[in-house]
Amino acid sequence: MAHKFILLKTIVYPVVDVNVMFSAGSVRDSKQTNGVASMTNHLMFSGSAGMSEQKLMNSFADIGAQIGSNFNRDQSSFSLRTLSEEKSEAIELFKVVLQKPNFDKEILDREAKRYVANIAQAETMPEAIATKRFMKSIYGEHPYGLPSSGTIDSINRIKVAHLKKFYKEFYVANQADIVIVGDVTKAEAELIAKDISSGLPVNNNIKAIPDVKKVEKQETRISHPAKQAHLYYGVPIMKRNDPDFFPLYVGNHVLGGSGFGSRLTYEIREKKGLVYSVYSYFMPLTKKGPFEVALQTSKDQVDEAMGLIKTTIQSFIENGPSESELQASKDNITGGFALRFGSNQKIMNYVSMMAFYNYPLDYLKTYTDKVNAVTVDQIKTAFKKRVDLNEFSTVIVGVDER
Amino acid sequence: MKLFKILFLLFFIPITGYTTVHKHSLENGLKIFVKEDNRAPIVVSQVWYRAGSLDEVNGKTGVAHLLEHMMFKGTKTTKPGEFSKIIAAAGGRENAFTGADYTCYFQQLEKSQLPISLKMEADRMQNLVVSEEEFAKEIKVVMEERLWRTDDNPKAQANELFNTLMFHAHPYGKPIVGWMNDLENMTHSDAEEWYKNWYGPNNAILVVAGDVKASEVFKMAEKYFGQIPPIVLPERKPQQEPKQNGTRTSILKAPSKLSYVQMGYRAPTLDKNSQEISKDQFALEVLVGILSQSSSARLTQNLVRDSRIALNVGAGYSMVNRGNESSFELYATPSETTSTSDLIAALKEELNKIKRDGVTEEELKRVKTIVIADDVYQKDSVFNAAMQIGQLETQGYSHEILEDYIKNIKKVTSKDIQNAASRYFTDDTLTVVTIDPQPLDTSKPKKGKPHVH
Question: Could A339 and B110 be called an inter-chain contact, meaning their C-beta atoms sit closer than 8 Å?
Answer without folding.
Answer: yes
